[in-house]
Amino acid sequence: MKSYPQNYIDGRWVDSKDGRKHTVINPATEQAASEIVLGTAADVDDAVRAARRAFESFSQTSKEERIALLQRIIAEYQKRVPDIAEAIATEMGCPISIAQTAQAGSGLGHLGNALKALQDYHFAEKIGDNTVVREPIGVVALITPWNWPMNQIVAKVGPALAAGCTMILKPSEEAPSSAAIFAEVMDAAGVPAGVFNLVQGDGEGVGTALAKHPDIDMVSFTGSTRAGIMVAKNAADTVKRVAQELGGKSPNIILEGTPLDQALPGGVGGVLLNSGQSCVAPTRMLVHKSQHDEAAAKVGAMFAAKRVGDPLSEGDHIGPVVNRRQWERIQGLIQQGIDEGATLVTGGTGRPEGFDTGFYVKPTVFANVTPDMTIAREEIFGPVLVIMPYADDADAIRIANDTPYGLGAYIAGDPARAKTMVGKIRAGAVFVNAGGLAFDMPFGGYKQSGNGREFGKFGLEEFLEVKSVIGALPEDAVAA
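Above: the chain's sequence. Below: its structure in token form.
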């Protein structure tokens, strides 16, 4: 069992002040995987003081100095990819093949894009005789989830560093080890003391203390909509900026007449990747009523053929979901789908055949799902897909938008026809014909999927304040 008993504050590994031990359970074996100490409000105070001190000098560093720092971090991160991948596979159940590529690799991708965004960015611009200057917002709290640990950590840390901010990271206590390894990366890269701080903990303790802290200027949060609401309420008294990437229930519209063998695999893969534990997964498949039954049969066969297995074994399979609480919630939602009259095509409740241990979920498909059903409205966060029939394009748009969420949407079929629908869909990203995430494109949601944007220059700008300088400045100030 790996142990990370300390926080990283002011450039040193330090003991928590009155923190308590927390054991992370391996979701495949239900045995102890790792151990951390949950931090306290006193630890947060120490980290904020360190970050506030460091901000005085780090905020004044040149663009070139921060470029060099990001380059050193990239070099150190590359050395630790195998360790990061193993930690993710062990703690949250992502198969090691995906953990090494999509999971750990996404962190490297975000670092590279933060570097490029910084290299290309101008922090000052002329408007007439005056100048608009963009400056680091200050000390930022970064609160990240367990489902894509390094993706969300580095999507925040990279641009925050590029902007000249100092920070306190609180990763999920469900998958904390990769964050501790990342802190080792930052230390090895020579990040100045106090610029990056890690305080392990839960939402009730460390998360709340960060959101409420009067010396924190911004909170960047990724997680559930329920938790995001609490973060915003806790932050409100100090009027700090809050950027959030929250839940999703993304529609996947299969345009009428599109060959199903061409259209279905991308959507199926998007749901099964990471055992369905992705906020932007295309979990509502909308199929024209004339093709619904055929699509249900084909998708059902794909889900039934998907192997479930040990996350530490190489192969094209899915692993367990993250913990017992999530497993039980998914089981309850599958049962609700059955009880509310949806057609169970494949899967269902209970563990897959051959598993009596581990939080494994049967890959499950429902058909004939209507927009009022619980499984059509709630984010299930497991390998569960619902198929919904529609009458025409207008009906597909209506169903697609009939959700409190608006993170992503997918369209499969004729691009010209898809173009006519893009502007009518209320979502932060629309993926046409299985297009994947692009790290230089803005990522974030409409409605209850959050506010603000991450990735590339858009993520960089989330960590900047805008200052008007009225009056003439030297030309070299404008080129900064």
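The chain has a mean pLDDT of 96.
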